[in-house]
Amino acid sequence: MKIIAAGSVTALAFTLQACVPAGGGGGLASTGESATPATISQADKAEGAKAHPQLVAEFGGKVTGPQAAYVENVGKTIAVQSGLGNARSDFTVTLLNSPVNNAFAIPGGYVYVTRQLTALMNNEAQLAAVLGHEVGHVAARHSAKRQEAASRNQLLGALGSILSGVLLGDNAFGRLGQQVFSQGSQLLTLKYSRSQELEADDLGIAYLKRAGYDPRAMANVLESLARQNALDAQLRGTTNQVPEWASTHPDPASRVRDALATAGSGAAGITNRDGFLANVDGLLYGDDPKQGIIDGSDFVHPVLRFAFEAPNGFYMVNGTRAVSINGQSGKAQFSSGDLSGGMDQYIKNVFAGLTDSNQTRITPASIERTTVNGIPAAYSVARVQTSNGQVDVTVFAYDFGGGKAYHFVTITQAGQAGVFNPMFKSFHRISAEQAGNIKPRVLDVVTVKPGDTVQSLARQMAYTNGQLERFLVLNALQADSTLQAGQKVKIIRY
User: Fold this and answer.
1) Which of 21, 243, 263, 333 would give a disulfide with 267, using CB separation of 3.0 to 4.6 Å?
2) Which residues are the signal sequence here (predicted)?
3) Are residues 329 and 462 in the same domain?
4) Strand pairing of 92-96 and 110-114?
């Protein structure tokens, strides 16, 4: 979490299962060779150039150096296959410093992939497949159709203006998490249809073939994403392997089958596994300490020097602007803002950004003062009537000094706000020594030695839970896979 502003999250998106809307511009509308490509229009270039800085900022900034240059080269190679641009120079490809699995493309030839998703891949063809899928959304003009649907449903625009509050509507308990939490933007990610996702898969496969890559890479990376979803659910202690907001999308298993069928039984081509692994070796993995780190139930920010603990049974997701805390009995968001006008006014300002199902602003009845671990704090609870019953919305804020405040916004069923009390009480400052002990995780490509097994290598993973499962998914291996001496595998280390 890179603290920027209180209560604002940009509507962006999740990869492959649900992608950021891509705009305008023509291109190959189908995989048929008869489709007529169109160049990127000046209007699209202007729109993309305007949105680009915002998107980069939302996803933690861009990675620079040799790793980013490699991704840029692969991205331009696959993007130019779409016919949207006349040359590689027509595209801007960015490796984003984000710990979530994301990839997207926007009008004007702008293509993005996060370092986390890149680390999940196992060869260059898979990287090209992911970026090709996103460009496929642009080529098929899916966002134009999606924007029309969004307008009909009174949703925000496709490149997603800032969400100013929480809509507590018919599905109030779940909607807070949908619209405010989890890396920004699951609100709009529901609107790519099943057919659009499959069409983008097909277009990506066509681009792979034209570029000389193994077209089976699309199915391979979809399978890895499905396994990662399942592992995430397992580690969180939930049974839902597909996020609720992605429920309209084709199930991963069927997409894998369809992608393999589209690739063809005799498919072949370049994968460049060794080259890919050499270029991603040392890539930052998971949270960047500059944005805070989630370690089990703890969130620690070594730069801003604070920490807190999520309640038992809850899991956290670290976004660029906020941290979301999710569980069966409630949802919460942790963010910050400038403190001017005192704590009472700060809490009123946070509530002012929240609206109920009738777009009526939520007003707290009273504001209470307290102290948490030596930090001045204040809080207020507002009860809101929804069509599904009453819910309690709580704002708990801390005066951190220097004109800076931090706060939680939580939502629970009426009378259950206390489930977050342990979290509220856990917020505390950390010392310079404690901050200095926070180390990032990185991806380390190693060569298998004689006698190494998946089990022995998995024990080197920098996690206290799920070491074997994480290792297997990261390397697209099975528990009974036999490793060969000289083989390259990925391990996550501190």
Assistant:
1) 263
2) 1-18
3) no
4) parallel
Q: At which of 218, 246, 280 does a domain end? A: 280
Secondary structure (DSSP) of 306-333: EEEEPPTT-EEEE-SS-EEEEETTEEEE
Write down which residue in 387, 407, 436 finishes a domain.
436
Q: Does residue 245 sit in the same domain as residue 340? A: no
- Rounded Cα–Cα distance for residues 140 and 93 (Å): 19
Q: Indicate the burial class of 37 (C-beta count within 10 angstroms; 0-12, 13-18, 19 or more).
A: middle
Sheet with strand 441-447: strands edge to edge = 284-285, 441-447, 488-493
Q: Are 27 and 41 in contact (CB under 8 A)?
A: no
Q: Is the dihedral of CA 199, 202, 208, 209 positive or negative?
A: negative
In a domain, 24, yes or no: yes
Task: For residue 176, give the H/E element and its range.
Answer: helix 172-180
pTM: 0.81
Does an H or E element contain 445, and which? strand 441-447
Domain that holds residue 346: 289-436
In a shared domain, residues 45 and 78: yes
Instruction: Using alpha carbons, select from 232, 413, 246, 226 the residue that is nearest to residue 328.
Output: 413
Residue in the block written with tokens 């507002």: 382
Lowest mean pLDDT among 188-202, 271-285, 457-471: 188-202
Would you say residue 57 lies in a domain? yes
C-alpha 16/C-alpha 92 separation (Å) is 20
Domain shared by 266 and 318, yes or no: no
How do 428-429 and 389-401 pair as beta strands?
unpaired
Quick one: 134 and 257 in the same domain? Answer: yes
Beta-ladder partners of 186: none
Calculate the average pLDDT of the chain. 81
Asked whether residue 463 falls in the same domain as residue 330, the answer is no
pLDDT in tens, 380-409: 999 988 877 899 999 999 999 999 999 999
343 within some domain: yes
* Buried/exposed 182-193: b ≥16 CB within 10 Å, e otherwise: bbbbbbbbbbbb
Residue 382's φ and ψ, nearest 5 degrees, are -120, 130
pLDDT digits (tens, 9 = 90+) for 308-367: 999 998 989 888 788 999 998 999 999 999 998 899 999 999 998 886 656 667 888 899
Split into its structural domains, the chain has a count of 3
State how far the Cα of 88 lies from the Cα of 91, in Å rounded to an integer: 6
Query: Do 297 and 358 belong together in one domain?
Result: yes
pLDDT of 34 reads: 35
Of 259, 226, 258, 222, residue with least CA distance to 242: 226
Per-residue pLDDT at 178 exceeds 70: no
* DSSP 3-state percent helix, strand, coil across the chain (nearest 5): 35, 25, 40
Any idea what the CATH number is for the domain that residue 456 is in? 3.10.350.10
Cα atoms found within 13 Å of the Cα of residue 316, Cβ hemisphere only: 25
pLDDT for 406-452, tens place per residue?
999 999 999 999 999 999 999 999 999 999 999 999 999 999 999 99
Tokens of 102: 């994301």
Taking a C-beta distance cutoff of 8 angstroms, is the pair 310, 297 a contact? yes
